Amino acid sequence: MRSAIAGVLLLAAIIVPQSHMTAPKAAAAVEHQYNFAGGASLSIGRDSMTDRQTCVATTSQNSSALMLVAGGDVATISSFQDVDFNSAALLRIGDGTPLRLVPRGRRALMIPLRQSPEVIRALYTQRRVRLRFFKWPNGVFDEDLKIGDFAAAYDRAVELCAWPKMNVAAVHPPPDASDSEPVGVSATRFRLVLRCYPTPD
Length: 201
Hints:
The structure is a single chain. Strands 1, 2, 3, 4, 5, 6, 7, 8, 9, 10, 11, 12 and 13 form a 13-stranded antiparallel sheet that branches. 10% of the residues lie in helices and 39% in strands. The chain has one domain. The protein has helices at residues 116-124, 150-161, and strands at residues 8-17, 27-35, 41-46, 53-58, 65-70, 74-79, 89-93, 99-103, 108-110, 129-134, 140-144, 184-185, 190-198.
């Protein structure tokens, strides 16, 4: 699969409520929305032009930035604030070396394809993931991402979307009533925006 998409990064990405969206270039209505503890979710839809199934798992939506994962091996970040393209955007897993992200669009940050699996494993195992980017026209976002029960969302995608199984044990967050959403299928309507970008050198 990787050789077939070398040089092109499929960013499945920006899932936001319709009230937050402006003029998507390509969209597919989400048919099923599965919510999990801590605000994580799995959205399953179908592209209206190709009839292909689309599946996107997200970290907690109880934050001003969230991670989106498509196909089990592609990850990107969606911000609810405009990103300053002229400043470095960084992601750090635990105490590791920060990864440089590439802003794409006003509110999307691309994770290089070769580094996406490491980031997805970190989410699946509840490792600390720190994100820093500069806002436009001023300000800075410098926080740990709220992950929620991303492992549960990913495992549901393994079952329903044929995503590859993880080779590490799932880690689920401890129960926290103040940060939990009802688990199940949501009736809220979303739109799924899919974009393709070239892989950075």
